[in-house]
Amino acid sequence: MHPNRQAAVSSAVVLALAAGVLVGCERGASTGAGPSSAGPTKAGCPTVLARDKAAVQRAEKTNFTWNGPTTGPRAASGKKIVYVAQTMTNPGVAGAAKGVKEAAQAIGWNVRVIDGQGTPAGIQAAFSQAIALRPSGIVIGGFDPHLTSQQVAKANAEHIPLIGWHAVDSPGPSKDPKLFSNITTKVQDVAKISADWIITHSHGNAGVVVFTDASIPFARNKSELIKKELATCPSVKLLAEENIPISDTSSRTPQEVSSLLSRFRDRWTHSVAINDVYFADAAPALRAARKKGGAAPYNIGAGDGDPSAFQRINSRQFQTATVPEPLAQQGWQIIDEFNRAFSGRPASGYIAPVHIATAANSHGVTSWDPPGYRAAYRKFWGR
Q1: Are 317 and 291 in contact (CB under 8 A)?
Q2: CATH of the domain spanning 80-184+328-352
Protein backbone atom coordinates (compact mmCIF):
# COMPACT_ATOMS: atom_id res chain seq x y z
CA MET A 1 0.00 0.00 0.00
CA HIS A 2 3.15 4.00 1.40
CA PRO A 3 3.99 7.29 3.25
CA ASN A 4 7.30 9.19 3.03
CA ARG A 5 10.12 7.22 1.40
CA GLN A 6 13.23 9.07 2.63
CA ALA A 7 16.21 6.91 3.43
CA ALA A 8 16.44 5.54 6.92
CA VAL A 9 18.08 2.47 8.32
CA SER A 10 16.06 0.43 10.76
CA SER A 11 17.46 -1.06 13.90
CA ALA A 12 18.27 -4.77 14.06
CA VAL A 13 15.23 -6.96 14.48
CA VAL A 14 15.49 -10.40 16.04
CA LEU A 15 12.59 -12.81 16.20
CA ALA A 16 13.05 -16.02 18.17
CA LEU A 17 10.60 -18.78 18.92
CA ALA A 18 10.82 -20.49 22.28
CA ALA A 19 12.38 -23.51 20.63
CA GLY A 20 14.92 -21.31 18.88
CA VAL A 21 13.93 -22.48 15.41
CA LEU A 22 13.37 -19.10 13.77
CA VAL A 23 15.73 -16.16 13.80
CA GLY A 24 15.69 -13.11 11.55
CA CYS A 25 18.34 -10.43 11.41
CA GLU A 26 18.09 -7.00 9.82
CA ARG A 27 20.25 -6.42 6.77
CA GLY A 28 20.54 -10.09 5.96
CA ALA A 29 22.37 -11.92 8.72
CA SER A 30 22.31 -15.64 8.08
CA THR A 31 20.26 -17.96 10.23
CA GLY A 32 22.16 -21.09 9.24
CA ALA A 33 20.80 -23.99 7.28
CA GLY A 34 17.51 -23.55 5.51
CA PRO A 35 15.44 -25.45 2.96
CA SER A 36 17.00 -26.28 -0.38
CA SER A 37 13.73 -26.14 -2.29
CA ALA A 38 10.06 -25.33 -1.98
CA GLY A 39 9.09 -28.96 -2.52
CA PRO A 40 6.33 -30.76 -0.60
CA THR A 41 8.54 -32.04 2.19
CA LYS A 42 7.04 -32.58 5.63
CA ALA A 43 6.09 -29.27 7.18
CA GLY A 44 6.75 -28.41 10.78
CA CYS A 45 3.34 -26.76 11.07
CA PRO A 46 0.58 -28.99 9.63
CA THR A 47 -2.24 -27.19 11.44
CA VAL A 48 -1.00 -23.76 10.38
CA LEU A 49 -0.46 -25.01 6.84
CA ALA A 50 -4.03 -26.29 6.55
CA ARG A 51 -5.42 -23.01 7.89
CA ASP A 52 -3.27 -20.89 5.59
CA LYS A 53 -4.08 -22.99 2.53
CA ALA A 54 -7.80 -22.33 3.06
CA ALA A 55 -7.18 -18.59 3.51
CA VAL A 56 -5.10 -18.41 0.32
CA GLN A 57 -7.75 -20.24 -1.68
CA ARG A 58 -10.37 -17.71 -0.55
CA ALA A 59 -8.11 -14.76 -1.42
CA GLU A 60 -7.40 -16.11 -4.90
CA LYS A 61 -11.08 -16.16 -5.89
CA THR A 62 -12.11 -13.61 -8.53
CA ASN A 63 -15.83 -14.36 -8.92
CA PHE A 64 -17.51 -12.14 -6.37
CA THR A 65 -19.89 -9.20 -6.55
CA TRP A 66 -19.34 -5.62 -5.38
CA ASN A 67 -19.67 -5.52 -1.60
CA GLY A 68 -19.10 -1.80 -1.11
CA PRO A 69 -21.49 1.16 -0.82
CA THR A 70 -24.66 1.10 -2.90
CA THR A 71 -26.21 4.23 -1.37
CA GLY A 72 -24.87 7.70 -0.70
CA PRO A 73 -25.44 11.41 -1.30
CA ARG A 74 -26.04 12.88 -4.73
CA ALA A 75 -23.03 14.44 -6.39
CA ALA A 76 -21.99 17.88 -5.17
CA SER A 77 -21.09 20.26 -7.97
CA GLY A 78 -18.10 22.42 -8.80
CA LYS A 79 -15.54 20.81 -6.48
CA LYS A 80 -11.77 21.00 -6.88
CA ILE A 81 -9.54 18.30 -5.42
CA VAL A 82 -5.74 18.37 -5.07
CA TYR A 83 -3.90 15.06 -4.85
CA VAL A 84 -0.57 15.52 -3.06
CA ALA A 85 1.55 12.55 -4.12
CA GLN A 86 4.46 11.22 -2.08
CA THR A 87 6.11 10.47 -5.41
CA MET A 88 4.55 9.61 -8.73
CA THR A 89 7.35 7.12 -9.30
CA ASN A 90 5.63 4.92 -6.69
CA PRO A 91 3.25 2.82 -8.83
CA GLY A 92 0.67 2.53 -6.06
CA VAL A 93 0.55 6.28 -5.47
CA ALA A 94 0.31 6.89 -9.21
CA GLY A 95 -2.37 4.21 -9.65
CA ALA A 96 -4.55 5.69 -6.92
CA ALA A 97 -4.11 9.14 -8.45
CA LYS A 98 -5.27 7.78 -11.80
CA GLY A 99 -8.38 6.36 -10.14
CA VAL A 100 -9.08 9.71 -8.46
CA LYS A 101 -8.88 11.52 -11.79
CA GLU A 102 -11.15 8.98 -13.47
CA ALA A 103 -13.76 9.23 -10.72
CA ALA A 104 -13.55 13.04 -10.64
CA GLN A 105 -14.31 13.13 -14.34
CA ALA A 106 -17.30 10.87 -13.76
CA ILE A 107 -18.70 13.04 -10.96
CA GLY A 108 -17.87 16.32 -12.72
CA TRP A 109 -15.04 17.69 -10.55
CA ASN A 110 -11.55 19.00 -11.26
CA VAL A 111 -8.39 17.30 -9.95
CA ARG A 112 -4.80 18.51 -9.82
CA VAL A 113 -1.89 16.24 -8.87
CA ILE A 114 1.19 17.76 -7.20
CA ASP A 115 4.24 15.49 -6.97
CA GLY A 116 6.20 15.63 -3.70
CA GLN A 117 9.20 14.01 -5.43
CA GLY A 118 9.72 11.54 -2.58
CA THR A 119 11.52 13.89 -0.16
CA PRO A 120 10.27 15.50 3.07
CA ALA A 121 10.99 18.99 1.73
CA GLY A 122 9.31 18.22 -1.57
CA ILE A 123 6.21 16.76 0.07
CA GLN A 124 5.90 19.69 2.47
CA ALA A 125 6.24 22.17 -0.40
CA ALA A 126 3.65 20.26 -2.46
CA PHE A 127 1.20 20.27 0.46
CA SER A 128 1.71 24.01 1.04
CA GLN A 129 1.08 24.61 -2.65
CA ALA A 130 -2.09 22.53 -2.44
CA ILE A 131 -3.44 24.63 0.44
CA ALA A 132 -2.61 27.85 -1.42
CA LEU A 133 -4.86 26.69 -4.26
CA ARG A 134 -7.80 26.80 -1.83
CA PRO A 135 -9.26 23.47 -2.96
CA SER A 136 -12.43 21.79 -1.80
CA GLY A 137 -10.39 18.85 -0.52
CA ILE A 138 -6.86 17.45 -0.40
CA VAL A 139 -5.69 13.85 -0.79
CA ILE A 140 -2.65 12.76 1.24
CA GLY A 141 -1.27 10.34 -1.31
CA GLY A 142 0.98 7.75 0.28
CA PHE A 143 2.94 9.63 2.94
CA ASP A 144 2.86 9.99 6.71
CA PRO A 145 0.80 13.08 7.60
CA HIS A 146 3.04 13.67 10.61
CA LEU A 147 5.72 14.64 8.11
CA THR A 148 3.51 17.58 7.15
CA SER A 149 2.00 18.37 10.54
CA GLN A 150 2.06 22.14 9.98
CA GLN A 151 0.28 21.81 6.66
CA VAL A 152 -2.24 19.37 8.10
CA ALA A 153 -2.98 21.80 10.94
CA LYS A 154 -3.42 24.66 8.47
CA ALA A 155 -5.77 22.63 6.27
CA ASN A 156 -7.80 21.63 9.34
CA ALA A 157 -7.98 25.26 10.45
CA GLU A 158 -9.24 26.26 7.01
CA HIS A 159 -11.81 23.43 7.11
CA ILE A 160 -10.39 21.67 4.05
CA PRO A 161 -11.31 17.98 4.28
CA LEU A 162 -8.33 15.65 4.13
CA ILE A 163 -8.52 12.10 2.88
CA GLY A 164 -5.52 9.79 3.00
CA TRP A 165 -4.49 7.00 0.72
CA HIS A 166 -2.22 4.69 2.74
CA ALA A 167 -1.51 7.68 4.97
CA VAL A 168 -1.95 5.99 8.34
CA ASP A 169 -2.00 2.36 9.46
CA SER A 170 -5.76 1.91 9.73
CA PRO A 171 -8.58 2.47 7.25
CA GLY A 172 -11.40 4.89 8.01
CA PRO A 173 -11.54 8.22 9.88
CA SER A 174 -8.53 9.37 11.88
CA LYS A 175 -8.47 11.78 14.83
CA ASP A 176 -4.69 12.26 15.03
CA PRO A 177 -3.91 13.32 12.39
CA LYS A 178 -7.36 14.59 11.56
CA LEU A 179 -8.49 12.85 8.37
CA PHE A 180 -12.05 12.45 7.16
CA SER A 181 -11.01 8.98 6.11
CA ASN A 182 -7.97 6.91 5.15
CA ILE A 183 -8.36 4.57 2.19
CA THR A 184 -6.45 1.31 2.35
CA THR A 185 -6.90 -2.37 2.75
CA LYS A 186 -6.18 -3.56 6.28
CA VAL A 187 -2.42 -3.81 6.63
CA GLN A 188 -2.90 -6.73 9.02
CA ASP A 189 -4.83 -8.65 6.37
CA VAL A 190 -2.33 -7.88 3.60
CA ALA A 191 0.63 -8.87 5.76
CA LYS A 192 -1.03 -12.06 6.95
CA ILE A 193 -2.16 -13.30 3.54
CA SER A 194 1.23 -12.66 1.94
CA ALA A 195 2.94 -14.69 4.67
CA ASP A 196 0.22 -17.34 4.42
CA TRP A 197 0.91 -17.62 0.69
CA ILE A 198 4.60 -18.29 1.36
CA ILE A 199 3.78 -20.94 3.96
CA THR A 200 1.28 -22.56 1.58
CA HIS A 201 3.39 -22.32 -1.57
CA SER A 202 6.44 -23.77 0.19
CA HIS A 203 4.42 -26.48 1.98
CA GLY A 204 5.75 -24.99 5.21
CA ASN A 205 9.41 -25.19 4.20
CA ALA A 206 10.74 -21.82 3.05
CA GLY A 207 13.84 -19.71 3.42
CA VAL A 208 12.53 -16.17 3.29
CA VAL A 209 13.93 -12.70 2.63
CA VAL A 210 11.77 -9.71 3.55
CA PHE A 211 12.21 -6.39 1.72
CA THR A 212 10.95 -3.28 3.51
CA ASP A 213 11.35 0.49 3.85
CA ALA A 214 11.85 1.27 7.53
CA SER A 215 11.57 5.00 6.90
CA ILE A 216 7.83 4.58 6.34
CA PRO A 217 5.87 3.71 9.50
CA PHE A 218 3.14 2.02 7.45
CA ALA A 219 5.68 -0.14 5.60
CA ARG A 220 7.70 -0.92 8.70
CA ASN A 221 4.58 -2.07 10.51
CA LYS A 222 3.61 -4.23 7.54
CA SER A 223 6.95 -6.03 7.46
CA GLU A 224 6.81 -6.62 11.21
CA LEU A 225 3.38 -8.20 10.80
CA ILE A 226 4.64 -10.35 7.93
CA LYS A 227 7.48 -11.67 10.06
CA LYS A 228 5.10 -12.36 12.92
CA GLU A 229 2.87 -14.46 10.67
CA LEU A 230 5.82 -16.32 9.12
CA ALA A 231 6.89 -17.22 12.66
CA THR A 232 3.68 -19.21 13.15
CA CYS A 233 5.31 -21.97 11.08
CA PRO A 234 8.52 -23.15 12.81
CA SER A 235 9.87 -24.82 9.66
CA VAL A 236 9.89 -21.49 7.80
CA LYS A 237 13.22 -19.69 8.19
CA LEU A 238 13.55 -15.91 8.05
CA LEU A 239 16.95 -15.57 6.39
CA ALA A 240 17.18 -11.78 6.23
CA GLU A 241 15.36 -8.49 6.24
CA GLU A 242 16.58 -5.90 3.76
CA ASN A 243 15.81 -2.27 4.56
CA ILE A 244 15.87 -0.36 1.26
CA PRO A 245 13.96 2.93 0.93
CA ILE A 246 11.55 2.79 -1.99
CA SER A 247 13.17 5.90 -3.44
CA ASP A 248 16.47 3.94 -3.59
CA THR A 249 15.24 0.61 -4.91
CA SER A 250 16.65 1.00 -8.41
CA SER A 251 20.14 1.84 -7.17
CA ARG A 252 20.39 -0.49 -4.18
CA THR A 253 18.24 -3.56 -4.80
CA PRO A 254 20.37 -5.22 -7.52
CA GLN A 255 23.50 -5.09 -5.35
CA GLU A 256 21.67 -6.35 -2.27
CA VAL A 257 20.09 -9.20 -4.23
CA SER A 258 23.49 -10.25 -5.58
CA SER A 259 24.82 -10.30 -2.03
CA LEU A 260 21.87 -12.37 -0.81
CA LEU A 261 22.35 -14.89 -3.60
CA SER A 262 26.03 -15.22 -2.72
CA ARG A 263 25.34 -15.77 0.96
CA PHE A 264 22.23 -17.94 0.94
CA ARG A 265 22.29 -19.65 -2.47
CA ASP A 266 19.54 -22.29 -2.70
CA ARG A 267 18.45 -21.74 0.90
CA TRP A 268 16.72 -18.59 -0.35
CA THR A 269 13.42 -19.97 -1.71
CA HIS A 270 10.91 -17.14 -1.19
CA SER A 271 10.74 -13.36 -0.84
CA VAL A 272 8.09 -10.93 0.28
CA ALA A 273 8.28 -7.17 -0.21
CA ILE A 274 6.14 -4.36 1.13
CA ASN A 275 5.88 -3.07 -2.46
CA ASP A 276 6.15 -4.83 -5.83
CA VAL A 277 8.74 -2.36 -7.07
CA TYR A 278 11.50 -4.27 -5.28
CA PHE A 279 11.08 -7.20 -7.65
CA ALA A 280 11.32 -5.00 -10.74
CA ASP A 281 14.74 -3.96 -9.50
CA ALA A 282 15.70 -7.45 -8.31
CA ALA A 283 15.08 -9.03 -11.70
CA PRO A 284 18.38 -7.96 -13.37
CA ALA A 285 20.46 -9.41 -10.53
CA LEU A 286 18.47 -12.66 -10.52
CA ARG A 287 18.80 -12.90 -14.29
CA ALA A 288 22.54 -12.22 -14.13
CA ALA A 289 22.85 -15.08 -11.63
CA ARG A 290 21.18 -17.36 -14.23
CA LYS A 291 18.09 -17.80 -12.08
CA LYS A 292 14.97 -18.85 -13.97
CA GLY A 293 12.09 -16.37 -13.93
CA GLY A 294 9.56 -18.97 -12.83
CA ALA A 295 11.73 -20.66 -10.22
CA ALA A 296 13.06 -19.89 -6.74
CA PRO A 297 13.24 -17.47 -5.15
CA TYR A 298 9.48 -17.22 -5.54
CA ASN A 299 8.45 -13.62 -4.90
CA ILE A 300 5.22 -12.09 -3.61
CA GLY A 301 4.50 -8.40 -3.28
CA ALA A 302 2.47 -7.32 -0.25
CA GLY A 303 1.20 -4.30 -2.25
CA ASP A 304 0.43 -2.51 -4.48
CA GLY A 305 -0.24 -4.64 -7.57
CA ASP A 306 0.80 -2.15 -10.25
CA PRO A 307 0.72 -3.10 -13.97
CA SER A 308 4.41 -4.01 -14.11
CA ALA A 309 3.91 -6.48 -11.25
CA PHE A 310 1.11 -8.20 -13.17
CA GLN A 311 3.31 -8.30 -16.27
CA ARG A 312 6.09 -10.02 -14.32
CA ILE A 313 3.62 -12.48 -12.81
CA ASN A 314 1.88 -13.29 -16.09
CA SER A 315 5.19 -13.78 -17.92
CA ARG A 316 6.71 -15.65 -14.96
CA GLN A 317 9.62 -13.26 -14.70
CA PHE A 318 10.86 -13.19 -11.10
CA GLN A 319 7.51 -12.56 -9.45
CA THR A 320 4.94 -15.23 -8.67
CA ALA A 321 2.19 -13.37 -6.85
CA THR A 322 1.02 -10.04 -5.49
CA VAL A 323 -1.54 -8.85 -2.97
CA PRO A 324 -2.83 -5.99 -5.08
CA GLU A 325 -4.64 -2.93 -3.94
CA PRO A 326 -7.72 -2.23 -6.10
CA LEU A 327 -6.12 1.10 -7.03
CA ALA A 328 -8.80 2.38 -9.40
CA GLN A 329 -11.58 1.40 -7.00
CA GLN A 330 -9.78 3.17 -4.16
CA GLY A 331 -9.52 6.30 -6.30
CA TRP A 332 -13.27 6.20 -6.84
CA GLN A 333 -13.79 5.65 -3.13
CA ILE A 334 -11.69 8.72 -2.34
CA ILE A 335 -13.97 10.86 -4.49
CA ASP A 336 -17.05 9.30 -2.90
CA GLU A 337 -15.69 9.97 0.60
CA PHE A 338 -15.12 13.63 -0.31
CA ASN A 339 -18.69 13.79 -1.61
CA ARG A 340 -19.91 12.46 1.72
CA ALA A 341 -17.80 15.03 3.57
CA PHE A 342 -19.19 17.87 1.44
CA SER A 343 -22.72 16.61 2.15
CA GLY A 344 -22.20 16.43 5.91
CA ARG A 345 -22.39 12.63 5.89
CA PRO A 346 -20.04 10.25 7.75
CA ALA A 347 -17.40 8.24 5.95
CA SER A 348 -18.63 5.08 4.22
CA GLY A 349 -16.42 2.77 6.27
CA TYR A 350 -15.80 0.50 3.30
CA ILE A 351 -12.61 -1.61 3.33
CA ALA A 352 -11.70 -3.66 0.26
CA PRO A 353 -11.00 -7.33 1.01
CA VAL A 354 -7.55 -8.75 0.29
CA HIS A 355 -6.91 -10.57 -2.97
CA ILE A 356 -3.99 -12.64 -4.27
CA ALA A 357 -3.18 -12.39 -7.97
CA THR A 358 -1.17 -15.10 -9.74
CA ALA A 359 -0.68 -16.12 -13.35
CA ALA A 360 -3.39 -18.74 -12.80
CA ASN A 361 -6.15 -16.32 -11.82
CA SER A 362 -5.22 -12.95 -13.37
CA HIS A 363 -6.08 -14.07 -16.92
CA GLY A 364 -3.53 -11.71 -18.46
CA VAL A 365 -4.85 -8.46 -16.98
CA THR A 366 -2.49 -5.84 -15.56
CA SER A 367 -4.46 -4.68 -12.51
CA TRP A 368 -6.87 -5.87 -9.87
CA ASP A 369 -10.10 -4.11 -10.76
CA PRO A 370 -13.04 -5.72 -8.96
CA PRO A 371 -16.37 -5.41 -10.74
CA GLY A 372 -19.41 -3.33 -9.94
CA TYR A 373 -18.13 -0.24 -8.14
CA ARG A 374 -18.26 2.23 -11.04
CA ALA A 375 -21.92 1.53 -11.75
CA ALA A 376 -22.77 1.62 -8.03
CA TYR A 377 -21.11 4.99 -7.42
CA ARG A 378 -22.52 6.55 -10.61
CA LYS A 379 -26.01 5.40 -9.68
CA PHE A 380 -26.23 7.08 -6.30
CA TRP A 381 -24.19 10.10 -7.43
CA GLY A 382 -26.80 10.57 -10.14
CA ARG A 383 -24.11 10.54 -12.84
Answers
A1: no
A2: 3.40.50.2300
